[in-house]
Amino acid sequence: MNQMNVNIAFIGYGTVAQGFTEIILEKEKKLHELYGLTIKVVAISDIMKGSVYEENGLNMRDILSLVKNGKSLEDYPAGVIGLNSLETITKTNADTILEVSYTDIITGEPALTHIRTALRAGKNVISTNKGPAVKQADQLLKIAKKNKVYYGFEGTVLSGTPALNLAQYALSGIDITEFRGILNGTTNYILARMEEGMPYEEALEKAQKLGYAEADPTGDIEGLDALGKVIILTNVVLRKKIALSDVKRQGITNISMNDIKKAQKQGRKWKLIGRAKIQKDGSVLASVLPEKLPLSDPLANVHEAANALTFITDELGPVTIIGPGAGRRETGFALLIDLINMKNHISFDSHN
Ligand code: HSE
To answer: What is the pLDDT of residue 213?
Structure first.
């Protein structure tokens, strides 16, 4: 098996980055023995927590303990401190940038600039950041190809539940013409609580406490987060270009307790469904809307903060994947999927 040494720099060191760090510390031996990966984190730059660079590798147990104790990364006892995100990308010996700074779906920034800069500097990028993938997945993949590096963004859809990998690798050769799914955990969780009689506000507060919601939950409850995922899936899986403004969107804020009770009496459940379908003329019809599903619909039985996605395919008909769509370790794991894919991809390329 080919061995690969990876030097990582984190841009952003929030919960996802910390979840990933825990995973690679726990799986260090397995990653080396089974996947040929030796991972060193050499730099971290976080807008709130500060920045540290140590070319020989940071002790990540010490880093986690600093962060858990609310200390600055700049309290780390060695290395260079104070590099900003772009300096961390371009001026360190990192070969792989994990872009996990905050998401802005509308502009994609500042993550878009981070990713573009890294790819142009010949560095691999792995990111769970939805903004850049929504705005420019296609262009970023082209820049990556041109610079012979890797851009992976599995965690932008369904966190570590491998939705993009399913379509791109496991279902290689199939035609996917349509998808529908529950693409936001926060709203699914809120609807589940409301079905039990919990008022909307309290359910939202709980979803925030459990870490499902975005920093500003407006994007979750108004369907913008799900819309971002519809755009990514349409552009990448259906291979059709659409933008935010092409999609009809409504969140769950208009669904009252009364609506929920009425649906229950009819043997139905409200779910926020994101969908897109290639039409006969080649155009795409996409939406994010609350839909009242019969209990016989598999999506009606996706509980709590789980997500689900059904691809409609030519050879297999519907293929559905269900799993977590948010969370610290769950999203951190998505970075590992991409890292292993990156290693395999680069090893493969080097043999061709
Ligand atoms: N806030 C998102 C959700 C997290 O609730 O699904 C993952 O994008």
So the answer is: 87
